[in-house]
Amino acid sequence: MKARRWKFCVIGGLAVQRWGEPRLTRDADLTLMTGFGEEEQFADALLERFQGRRPDARAFVLVNRVLLLRASNGKDVDVSFGALDFEVSMLKRATPFEFDAGLILPTCSAEDLFVMKAFAARVQDWLDVKGIAVKQEKSLNRSYILKHLAQLCELKETPEIMAQARRILERKP
Q1: Are 168 and 144 within 8 A, CB to CB?
Q2: pLDDT tops 70 at residue 173
């Protein structure tokens, strides 16, 4: 992605290592800006380089906007195809982070990670959200989080996510 000068950033469990309570993760999650209408060219380029984790990986990404890959080291990589205004903003706000000696990758901001994790709303995601809120308590831009999460929750019609996110930001049980 770097060689092709594609806009991308690390999200998910690897980004949690930077912003929240570090934990083990089974895969690497990335967002790649593809926009709408050019998904096939991105999918084809990635599938030339990496093995798909399912026989219909190309068809799956064109419907679900997530390309499930396996890296040459055997690790799973989930590449979300980004196009929403939130994702455009997230990629602009991403900053470099050194995961290992010489391995520097753009990582979403703590606020954007909070929004994505809260929006996903799975048990592990809420644990990650709480970890981010604690670790980044003094620097989190709460109004940014609530504004962007509200927009996404409107699309999904999930006001309960907003209520839970507010409780976490206010440090209420």
Answers
A1: no
A2: no
